[in-house]
Amino acid sequence: MRYAFRLAELLGHTPDRRKRPGTIKSIVEHTGLDRHQVASLLKNEAKYIPLDALSRLCDYLIDQGYATADQLPGALFAVNPENFWELIARRKEIELVIGVRATDSNPTPEGASVVASDSVLVGEVLSGVSTLGGVAKHKESEGDTAGREVPMPDRFQQTLVWSPGQVDLQDVRSRAHDVFESYIDDTGDRGMICVGSIKSNPVVELLFSDVFGCTPYVTEDDVDDVSARSCPFFLRYRDTDPKPDSASAGTRLSKNEDAPQPGFYFEKNDGTWEFAGGTNKDTALVFYIYREALGRLDMVLSGFSGRATRLLAKTLAIRGEEFWPPIYEKSGDIIGAYLVTYERPEDTESRDEALFNPSGPAEIMPLPTEAIARRMARR
User: Which ranges carry the HTH cro/C1-type domain (predicted)?
Assistant: First the structure.
């Protein structure tokens, strides 16, 4: 069992320098602890903490009104997750962000609808969290010698945003910005799960930009070399897709390198890029970053097509354990990034077959760790 030190979460401390005025200075002046030690504790990077330092921090939290004496020191520690579904279930609040589309010529929230494939995926997420992927009943059984309680979020919230191409582009981005800023400005143990790709959910772009330090809604198709791309993966639009400017999507890998086929591309450990697909294949992306010190989980579940989205729901239901362990872990940031490929049926699916949503053979591929590490080092 692993524990995380949650000083940053209790203080509402954020990695953004513009939003954390004087946090370290205030703690140092009150406790007399070393500045570097405090910074390390805020990032959950310290390997150990002396009892004297722990006592001083508890006094500080009580004096400043962040916690009461009966809550400490327990409130400073939290159990880290041990599998994919537990990663989500241990968050106190979960916000599911879903893109909606207009059903009439005068787009209004009352007439907006969620795509069926996204709805299937949302349902599977709720099922997986509530049952820990089907193992919750085993944890609760008398034979469970570990005796651990089954974690469960205190609150689920569904948030709707306009999909690109449905309303004025400025309205699309404004709504997405308000949703994401409200989430990151909040404090406490929480998670955001974005369902869909940048084609249907503009908050996905903001999430990737926040992780990899790129400028949202600015295309990188014109970079001189593909190695200059901010994201280690790339969604190539279909010719018929809406094509909002994006740092994580577009129609070319770079100014000098084409992306001839629609779908997902990714950077390999050696710096070259590869198409994650092929003839008669469909692809989905699972991405998450968990910031231990903040207790904050950001996740994207994205199928390139409606069929891939429905199949991803099935894959999460029966093979969720394969999206764990994470592929990257450093400085309190834990990242999982996976592409899932599905064979397309030789015959066209009927409407009934699509509604039945039969599962298909899935190949789950963790993205190269070194490619992720290179991007994180650039920030």
Answer: 23-61
Mean pLDDT of the chain: 88
Length of the chain as a residue count: 379
Number of H helices, E strands in the chain: 12, 15
Q: Report how far residue 202's alpha carbon sits from residue 183's, in angstroms, rounded to the nearest whole number.
A: 15
CA torsion angle 318 137 85 123 (round to 10) = 70
Class of domain 3-79: mainly alpha
Position 39 scores a pLDDT of 84
In sequence order, the β-bridge partners of residue 236 are 250, 263
Residues 309/173/235/319 CA torsion (nearest 10 deg): -30
Q: Are 364 and 285 in contact (CB under 8 A)?
A: no
- Residue written as token pair 């097509």: 305
The span from the CA of 203 to the CA of 344, in Å, is 29
Tokens 């450990």 belong to 269
Positions of CATH 1.10.260 in the chain = 3-79
Q: Where are the beta strands (DSSP E) in 198-267?
A: 233-236, 249-250, 263-267
Q: What pTM was computed for the model?
A: 0.83
Give every CB contact of residue 352 below 8 A, 6+ residues apart in sequence: none
Tell me: pLDDT of 145 over 70.
no
Q: What angle do CA 246, 247, 250 make, to 5 degrees?
A: 55
Given this model, what pLDDT does residue 86 score?
93
pLDDT in tens, 257-307: 999 999 999 999 999 999 998 778 999 999 999 998 888 999 999 999 999
- The predicted-structure confidence for 153-176, as pLDDT tens digits, reads as follows 999 999 999 999 888 999 999 999
Average pLDDT, stretch 57-61?
Answer: 90
Alpha-carbon gap, residue 268 to 262, rounded angstroms? 19
C-alpha dihedral over 351, 354, 358, 360, to 10 degrees? Answer: 120
> Contact 256/225 with Cβ under 8 angstroms?
yes
